[in-house]
Amino acid sequence: MEKELIKKMILNCLKQYYSTESMPIGEKDLEDLINRILLVKVEEPKADLHEIINDTVYEFLTG
CB within 8 A of 61, min separation 6: which ones? Predict the structure, then answer.
C-alpha cells in the first residue's frame, strides 16, 4: 500500500476537524498513524481503507 496515498487521506480527514493552518499533528505522529493504518489493513484485508483512516484519526484526536 502506498504510504503517500494514506498520508494524503489522513491529512484530508483531519481537514474536517481543523483548518490546514492549525493541524495538530507532527511528522512523527503522522508516521505513527500511517503505520497503525497499515497494520489494521494487514490484519483486516477486507476492511474499507476510508473507515480505517477515519477511525484511526478519530482515536488519535480523542485519545
Answer: 17, 24
- The residue among 40, 42, 37 whose CA lies nearest residue 57 is 37
Which 3-state string (H, E, C) describes 27-41? HHHHHHHHHHHHHHH
Q: Which three cell numbers stand for residue 5?
A: 496515498
Contact between 57 and 23 (Cβ < 8 Å):
no
What is the span of the domain harbouring residue 27? 3-62
Mean pLDDT of 4-31: 86
- Report whether pLDDT(21) > 70: no
Question: Could you tell me which of 43, 31, 42, 24 has the C-alpha nearest to residue 6?
Answer: 31
What letters, b where the CB count within 10 A reaches 16 and e where it falls short, cover 13-27?
bbeeeeeeeeeebee
Q: How many domains does the chain have?
A: 1
